[in-house]
# Entry
Amino acid sequence: MKRTFAIILTAVAAAALFGGLVHVVLVAAHLSEPAAKTVYGMPPRRIWAGTVAVLALVGVVIGGLALARPASRFGTASGRLGAIAALVAGLIAMVNGVLNLATANGGPGTGNGVVGGAMAFVLGLTALALGGLALVRCRRTALEPGRMT
# Structure
């Protein structure tokens, strides 16, 4: 019971931190004001931002698996290859998120993908951090004395 409560509390705290980071990115980019006109449908910039946000989320998952299980049976998410995949996905997502925020000419709700770009930036940064930690851990275990790789 205590473990379940701790997991739920951690998930709520992580969601609150993620929402706060997205808000900080939007405020820093001066895009936190709502739009005067709402656009319905899926404009190309919103599709671009959504796709990059999904790529960043995949990078976070792969980086988390590479960090949690550095040498397991999960093909791409194990060891050095998983860490590199998380780094590449995080870098691509972060750069595209920044580009989307830089070219946006309105706030949330304008169809420019501002929220998706901010999510891609934050998740891409998280994927970079997880991939870097997994890569350092992978190199550290490879350099241990008495370990043959």
Q: What stands out?
A: Residues 114-142 form the longest helix (29 residues). Residues 5 and 11 are 10 Å apart (CA to CA). The chain has a mean pLDDT of 77.
